């Protein structure tokens, strides 16, 4: 199951159908159509409508890419998580990146690695985000399309620094390609990850396992209480329809009718109590111990010997 969790999309994009068909031909199964916002958020942000004629083997998700320049801009992230399937943050400075790793509620931290970053990636800061279930995203689209040599050089250098700081953990790879021309097959993406410093197994996990974890955790946050408790079924048994009872209940009812009932007179309660007491005594009777069996056998022999002596005395 290969995933591409960052495919830019707008309702008036005429090439989105060709892009989705090409992704399906390459073997991708889960696609996230992303919408980018920056600055002041609209009062009621809603994802764009899903395109028509989507291939049947594709699972379409909605995603919001939010560019943050001020740490105080995270007041509505919880409400955005209820509208979009994925919420990705794009910090522009080190202070915002620190807050995103430690306190902001998001699913993915997507850095613009095609530009030169004015700070260094630190293991302690990035490992805090990975421990919270947040993944870091590397987008190869700006490096394979005609963005220039500078963008490609920055992408390779920043990707290597990010992989070195995270020890190769918590990395996902997406395309961020606006056209089908910028999309690469899963094998080519794994080779790119090997060039950046990931092993072949880690590169495959970045497309499959890690991306699947992102979608699963995001769904759990939306449908559960604080991402911890998820009520799947209340455990209530369905009631029988109408007067029809199950087969076991019918059999038990017939057995109950076959039991003779005591006569309805003044001694009914006493008889029921006596019957119940006899049943309880019989059920409560335990098997005899060896010592008790020996004692009863000795008593039986003694009684038999006494009976023989009495018969001989009479004769």
TrEMBL record:
Comp. bias intervals (Basic and acidic residues): 234-244
Stretches that traverse the bilayer: none
Gene Ontology cellular-component annotations: nucleolar ribonuclease P complex
Keyword tRNA processing carried by entry: yes
Xref: Pfam families: RNase_P_p30
PANTHER family xref list: RIBONUCLEASE P PROTEIN SUBUNIT P30, RIBONUCLEASE P SUBUNIT P30
Family designation: Belongs to the eukaryotic/archaeal RNase P protein component 3 family.
Protein name, as recorded: Uncharacterized protein
